[in-house]
Structures are given as structure tokens and as C-alpha cells.
Fold this sequence. Notes:
Elements (H helix, E strand, L loop, with lengths): L5 E3 L2 E3 L2 H13 L4 E11 L6 E7 L6 E7 H7 L8 E11 L4 E11 L2 H17 L17 E6 L4 H13 L5 E5 L7 H13 L4 E8 L13 H8 L5 E5 L7 H5 L2 E2 L3 H8 L3 H62 L1 H6 L4 E3 L16 E6 L2 E6 L2
Parallel strand pairs: 5-7, 8-9, 8-10, 10-11, 11-12
Antiparallel strand pairs: 1-2, 3-4, 3-6, 4-5, 6-7, 13-14, 14-15
Helix pairs in contact: 4-8, 5-6
Amino acid sequence: MKIAPIEYGDRKVYSVSAFNRGVADWLARLPTLWVEGEVTELRRHTGWQSVFFTLKDPADGACLPATMPRGRFDALRLDLVDGERVHVFGRPELYEARGDFRLRVLSIERFGLGDHLAALERLKRKLAAEGLFAPERKRPLPRLPRVVGLVTGNDAAAKRDVLSTLTARFPPAHVVVAETYVQGPRAAAAIVEALRSLCAVPAVDVIVVARGGGSFEDLLPFSDERLVRAIAGCPVPVVSAVGHEQDTPLCDLAADVRASTPTAAGRLVVPDLGELLAGLDRSRGRLARGAQRAVVRERDALALVRDRLRRAPVLAVERKRAALEQAAARLKALSPEATLERGYAIVRTDDEIVRSPARLRPGQPLRVEVAEGEFGARVE
Length: 380
């Protein structure tokens, strides 16, 4: 809507509403920018759609009211308190109804966070160029580790989450815990030392590095170059379970496996005992059924062989009898008796069969054999 003044003679007068709207429109044309100051008067309520606070200049006490949508503020998980120095990104605006000037905030970073992020990005590129994050370096986790090493803080919720998951899934699990600092300037060196001490424990097959959620600064030790190199050079596979799912410290990239939470890490490093037992039962059932089928198969084969052995002598005798009968038939067909049966006769002298009449003399006695007997004869 066009902002127009009310004319009183030669005087142009703007209503409060028009004035505020005009100033708000002018402010809306200004670019977004960063503002540095200390957080004061932080007001946040679950029923409010916005979070309200004031930025104060510590040098001269100048103040700037600011507001930010609650969902965006909560997503940053900064856990700000009064007195913290921050960098705020946003644009100026005027609340027309009340003429309140304020900064509408789009993002917040703790003072110095930008430098930390830039340094981490440079370190990330350096380590990636050395191949510390390469996928081919990742090692598979052991199916059934003999000993699980756990690097975590003392009395930390992350430790309880990992241990409770391990004992619930696999009660016989053997866990060696190395408690150490997981926050602050001494944390990185302490975690490296704890990692080395676990590697020296016999039979440790996998190590979990666990820490619960926290602010960006709280998780900085897990992006320390010393720890990243120690994880990459660890002789056994390492599972990184640091922060929440959206957090990605550099140790996550160097580890063999990244777990979204400490509880998820516990599920990754040991199998579920119930599933193992169920699998064993299934395998046992398959073995039993296989053995039973093999016994039945061999029993049937043995019965077939036994039947063949039982019938083999009878078959052999039958074959021999048939061959003998066939030979007897051939012998009978070729025997002299068979020839005599067809009407032939055998003529003999006293000592030999007559084969030629030239060897006979007149009056010589002969014996003539026929099929049903013999009779005497004389040569004429």
C-alpha cells in the first residue's frame, strides 16, 4: 500500500502507522549483516514462537533487541546463557504496531566459531589428501569380538548407553573400559592415550570411542589432528559414536565405522544373542534333517544292494542252467544216437567201424548198429 501524507495547507503530515510502515519498508531494503555482542536478557518459552534476547556492546553498553524463530534457535543447540559473546547474522526490522526496532536473527555463532570452522576445514582437506578418510581403508568389524574396548568419559551417559546395549544384546560380552577426559583442552591427548592403552590389551578386537551430545566447542577434541591420526593408525577397527547424528567430528571420518549414537555403536559391535541362538537352532534343524535324509538315502541304497546280492546267486544259477541246457541240446543234436534216430546205421567189424567196402572180404561177419539196437550181417 502506498504511503501518502495528509496535507494541511502547505504542511505534509504522516500518521504514526504510515510513518512506521515507511521506516519498516526502508529497513527491509537493507542487506543482512553480522553483529557482534554479548547475549543478555535471553527469554525463551515453550509456548512462544520466537526467542527474545538483547545484544549488548561490552565497550559502551549499547543494546540491540533481537528475536529469532524458536525452531531455528533450538536447531542450533548452542545452549546460550547471558553474558556469552556471539556473532549474530540477520537484518534490521521495525515492528510496525509498536514501533519497536530490533534485529531479526537468522543464525548465531559463538565468538570465534568462524575461525574454528575454517581451521577444521583446512585440517579436513589436509587429512583427506593423505588418504586418512579413504573408503578403502575401512575395515569390517569382527563378527564375534573376544574383547570390546570402550573409550568414554567417567559416569557419562554414553558409557551407560554402550554398556547397557552390549549386555542386553550379548550378555557374555567382555568389555574393557578406558575412562578419560572427553571435553576441554586436555581431552584430545587423554583420548589418544586411552586408545593406545586399549590397543595393548590382549584379545581386544574392536574399540568404541563414545561421547554424548554437546556444543560445537565440547566436541572440538574429537576433531583434533592427534586423535584423528591415532584412530586412523589403530591396529584394530574403531567405531566412532560421538555426539548426535547431525554432528560430524573428524574422528567420524577416520573411524572404520560411524555410529549415529552410543546405543547404535553397541548394536554394531556385538551380535544379538537371541538371534544367534535362533540361527543355531535353525542350523541344527537343517543338520538333523540332512542327516536323516542321508540315512534314509543310504538305507534305501543298502536295501537295493542287499536285494541284488540276494537275487544274484539265483540269477547266476539260472544263467548257468540255461547255458548248460543249450550246450546239452547242441551235444544231443550232434551225438551219434541222434544220427541213428534219423535212420542211419553204424557198421563195424570186430575191431573198427567200416568206412570203406574196399577193406572188406566176402563172408566177413559184421555188426550193424541202428537207433534201437544192433544185428549181425555177413559180406557177400
